[in-house]
Fold this sequence. Notes:
Layout: E1 12-13, E2 26-28, E3 35-36, E4 49-52, E5 58-59, E6 72-75, E7 82-85, E8 88-91, E9 96-99, E10 114-115, E11 128-131, E12 137-138, E13 151-154, E14 160-161, E15 173-176, H1 181-188, E16 192-195
Parallel strand pairs: 1-3, 2-4, 3-5, 4-6, 9-10, 10-12, 11-13, 12-14, 13-15, 15-16
Antiparallel strand pairs: 7-8, 8-9
Amino acid sequence: HSIIPSDGSVTSIGNYAFHGQTELKEFTVPHGITTIRSDAFSDCTKLSSFHISDTVTNLSPMFKNNFETITTLTVDKNNPVYHISGNCIIETASKTLVRGCSRSTIPDDGSVTSIGYYAFYYSRGLTDLTIPSAVSQIESDCLRSCKDLKSVTVLNPDAQIDGGANTFYGDVTIYGYTGSTAEAYAKEYEKTFVAL
C-alpha cells in the first residue's frame, strides 16, 4: 500500500511507478502532482477507476498501456489543461483526446478535433467507436492493441488518418463515406469497408 505525499515533495509519477500492482482497483492522483509518465500504471490488471487532480498539466505523449481495464475516467473540474467528456480525457486548448477507455464516447460537440497518439491503446472491451465529423486528425496507433475492436465509424470524409495498419487495429470493419479517407485507408491496409 503506497501513499503519495501531497505536501509538494512529489510532483511526478514516473515510468512504471505502479507497474504490476495487481490489487490496485482505483487511483486518485493527489493534489500537487503535475506529471504522469508513460506506463506508470502498466499491468495494474484490476485498475478500473482513475481520477486526475486539478494540478496535473502534463500527461506523457505515450500515456499508454496504463488503462487496459479502466472503465471510468474523471478529471477535476478546476484542472486548467484537461477536462473530461464522454469518459474521455481531453486537452482543452488543442481539442485533443489524449486518453479514452472501453466505455468512452467521443463528444460530437466540436470539443474534440484530434484523436491523439495511443489514445485508446489496449482498451480491453472496446468493441466499436464512432469518430465524429468534427475530428479532422486521427493520430498514429490511436486504437493499437484494442483486441476486442470490431468496428470504427469515421464521420468526417476528409479526416487525416496517420500511421499504418495498427491505427485501426486488427480485423476491424470501417464505416465511412464513399470516396473518403476512411475508404482509402481500408483499401490500403486491407480492412473491410462499409459505405454509409
